[in-house]
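User: My instructor asked us to take a sequence, write out its structure as tokens, and then describe one feature of it. I'm not sure where to start. Here is the sequence I was given:
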Amino acid sequence: MEDELSGKERRKSERVDAAFTLTYSIEKSYTLHISMGQADNLETIMVNLSDLGMAIVTNYDIPKGAHLYIKFNLINMRLSGDDRWKFMKIGGEVVSNVRLPDESHRIGIRFNKISEEDRIAISNFVIGNKVSPG
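Assistant: Let's start with the prediction itself. The structure tokens for your sequence are:
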């Protein structure tokens, strides 16, 4: 399952590169569970993040439309104390799947179940970590 990459930016919200380890599982798809070997709580790496979605790289060919349950620790080094770390539990839908040269898949996920508190924490992380042009 492969989407064509285009030069046109489709995102409605700014993303930043991020390399957090996360776990995910498939929601509501017995057929997909079977094809993935009943896998739950799979670990992978996030490659970018915004308050509306993220991209991950995984060894699984997860189809568009699949619903994922995602868990990760957001660590914002620009904050201090207990505000620096936040555990996220977010639902999302796969909106893109690009096969990479090493046979892994870059999966684009749009959040569809996220608390306002988590959305704000991610937005603050993005604002604090975006690279200034120059």
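For the description part of your assignment, you could build on this observation: Strands lie at 16-17, 21-27, 42-49, 53-58, 67-75, 85-99, 105-113. Try explaining in your own words what that tells you about the chain.
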